[in-house]
Design brief:
single chain, 233 residues, alpha/beta, Rossmann fold, Alpha-Beta Plaits, 2 domains, 4-stranded antiparallel beta sheet, 33% helix, binds magnesium ion
Length: 233
């Protein structure tokens, strides 16, 4: 069971740092994991450290920063090779954010996210600035347009590659994967899960997608997980 976090298990907040998992969600994930012999994994755009903060005190196998950081069930790391985001580029983004109130900049493992959730009128300005940054940092990076966020991230990893990595380790190996996610960056995950004969589930508004199943919102995901796994414990 591979689960995206924001927009899948938890609703968005204005500031990503305000998101925190409630006890009922943490308990439910713990029970679900137990029912699947530990084969439950979080696949997030957040850094590993930030995922752990959201789910404190629980620690799950996790792919952070879209798969730049991979923590296996036994705590070992299986990160892909690192591509550092140039410090000079990050400083330019800091200056841009300082000049535009409402924007939030997040430093990621090998990249940077520019959130405009509190300043949606700045979408075009943010897009343009991030395109400029992308051409500066070169072709080892790509630009992802998420929900009210633009993110520059290395080409060496994505959520699909992260799922494929987990599928080579116990207790995931040889099992049928399920991946639930809501965002454009989750499409890589849907593709990999489909290739493994698994179950791909899109959350939220219907759109063109690789996912083969659909749940309307976070509440529906949680109800589905609860009804699927809690009864088995
Ligand atoms: Mg999401």
């Amino acid at each position: 069971m591979f689960l995206d976090v924001d927009g899948t298990l938890l609703d968005f907040r204005e500031h990503p740092g305000d998101v925190i998992a409630d006890h009922s969600l943490i308990d439910m994930l713990g029970h679900s994991s137990k029912a699947m012999s530990g084969a439950l994994c979080l696949i997030s755009g957040r850094s590993l450290e930030d995922v752990d903060r959201v789910f404190t005190p629980a620690i799950f196998p996790t792919a952070g920063a879209h798969g730049a950081e991979i923590r296996l069930p036994d705590g070992r790391r299986a990160d892909p090779p690192e591509v550092p985001f140039p410090e000079s580029a990050f400083e330019k983004l800091v200056a841009f954010v300082d000049a535009h109130p409402g924007l939030v900049l997040e430093k990621k493992h090998g990249g940077a996210s520019l959130h405009y959730r509190r300043a949606p009128q700045l979408a075009d300005a943010c897009r343009q600035r991030m395109h400029e940054m992308l051409s500066e940092v070169g072709d080892r990076f790509r630009l992802i347009a998420g929900k009210l966020v633009f993110e520059i991230t290395p080409n060496t990893h994505d959520k699909g590659k992260a799922i494929a990595t987990f599928m080579t380790y116990e207790p995931f190996e040889g099992r049928r994967p399920v991946f639930i996610g809501d965002d454009i960056t989750d499409e890589d995950g849907f593709r990999i899960v489909n290739e493994h004969g698994g179950v791909s589930v899109l959350v939220g508004e219907r759109r063109e997608t690789e996912a083969r199943f659909y749940l309307p919102n976070v509440a529906a995901v949680r109800t589905w997980l609860r009804s699927s796994f809690i009864a088995q414990v």
